[in-house]
Amino acid sequence: MAFDLRALIFDLDGVIADTNPSHYHSWAAVAHEENIPFSPARFEHMKGVYRWDALHFFLHGRPHSKEDADRIMARKNAHYHELLLQMSPADALPGAVELIDEARAAGLKLGLASSSMNARNVLRQLQLTDRFHVLNDGASVERHKPAPDVFLQTAEQLGVTPDEAIIFEDSLAGVAAALAGGFRVVGVAADPASKPTVLVPSLSGITLAWLHTAFAAEPNRSEA
User: Fold this and answer.
1) Which has the closest alpha carbon to 178: 115, 99, 93, 222?
2) Which end of the chain is more exposed for a tag (fewer CB within 10 A), N or C?
3) Catalytic residue selected from 4, 13, 53, 191
């Protein structure tokens, strides 16, 4: 690898945990209750962003009061928590735990940088909390993805620079945030239009050796 890799930083939903279906069904349930148009395409813009930003996309300009917003968010979270309690280690996405464990064994630092306020609860359900040196979630920063703050804070807490870390993201907002922070980004089943440094369908089969090979062919960053 043409750079000194010292840390891997992961998003959670859609990268480590198979939670996107639960989020989608929770929003869909509220959409039905509130008679709000909703679709998988609209959900794509809600993935990976802070909950109140997701609500903005969900309402799509529909007039609402603060009380309406609070009520809708409470309903969505109630639906999601019901599904969250059913999660187990089996809901970790293919290849995620294997890559995390290989990186720890190799002495790399590991960080979680999620927009979710439920990140710690999800990790607890997956029994992965103790794998990470640093955990940041939706309450950790004021500016959320696509701002790079959560990734920059995580890297700083890990004691690495953006040039010494790789970010793993699946969402448009998350990839944009990582690129804005100056990180190399592995887009996990991400929209190619988000232009991650490397695009993969999943973390299945992704190893440190694979990353070495993939990033060895990376264009000169000063020219990118």
Assistant:
1) 115
2) C
3) 13
Place of tokens 């232009």: 195
Q: Which tokens belong to 46?
A: 């809600």
**What is d(CA 201, CA 128) in angstroms, rounded to the nearest whole number?**
22
In angstroms, the CA 123 to CA 214 distance is 28
Degrees, nearest 5: CA angle 23-29-32: 140
User: 20 Cβ partners below 8 Å, 6+ apart?
Assistant: 13, 14, 47, 170
Does the active-site annotation cover 11? yes
Return the H-helix or E-strand segment holding 33: helix 20-34
Q: Is the dihedral of CA 21, 22, 25, 27 positive or negative?
A: negative
Q: What is the number of alpha carbons within 13 Å of residue 31 lying toward its C-beta? A: 18
Task: Spell out the per-residue pLDDT of the chain, length 224, in tens.
Answer: 457 899 999 999 999 998 888 889 999 999 999 999 999 988 888 887 777 888 888 988 787 888 988 999 899 989 988 988 999 999 999 999 999 999 999 999 999 999 888 899 999 999 999 999 999 998 899 898 999 999 999 999 999 999 999 999 999 999 999 999 999 999 999 989 999 999 999 999 999 999 989 998 765 453 33
Phi, psi of 165 (to 5 degrees): -130, 155
- Catalytic, out of 11, 53, 137, 149: 11
Terminal-to-terminal C-alpha distance of the chain = 17
Domains of the chain are: 7-18+89-216 (3.40.50.1000), 20-84 (1.10.150.240)
Asked if 137 is an active-site residue, the reply is: no
